[in-house]
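Why does residue order matter? Because the sequence determines the fold. Keep that principle in mind as you read this record.
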Amino acid sequence: MLVQRFSQQSARRLLAHTSQPFVLSRLAPPAALATNRYRIQSRPAATQTIKDSSAYHILEAQRRNRPVSPHLLIYKPQISWYLSALNRITGSTLSGGFYLFGAAYLCAPLFGWHLDSASMAAAFGSLPVAVKVMLKFGVAMPFTFHSFNGVRHLIWDTGRELSNKGVQRTGWTVVGLSVVGSGILAVL
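Structure:
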């Protein structure tokens, strides 16, 4: 930023001072600044002190004249939007679920809860088969999706599949692998 400023000031000085013949020292901005032979352009600004209430009203008026950014509904939905949001949601759900279960497991002896493996296996075993498959699919889907999308991001980190077609292709691949992988884990 400082270099740009020096260059800009030097260029302004050189262009403003046209009465002298062209010299080589004008090409070098540091030399032009060091010689101090060139006048500095300045633009005086008129300022005035205003009250806080007036400043607030001026700010409100400026905000009313600003363009309103378009709403998300006018854009064509893309798979990358949905997968990005879903990746964050599944990551939060998985980490929150693990922390919640971990805290409950640690506090279970204090409250008399039976969260040991034998009690949980017996409770899960008593459920109907359809409910077991649905519960296992519900747990497996966020895990597989987040895992496969993590692999997708690792592929992106290598610089591959970053084109629009590559992003769409890998997105649909992640969706397909997640559904198939969750289905396989649910029926095991």
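The chain has seven helices and no strands.
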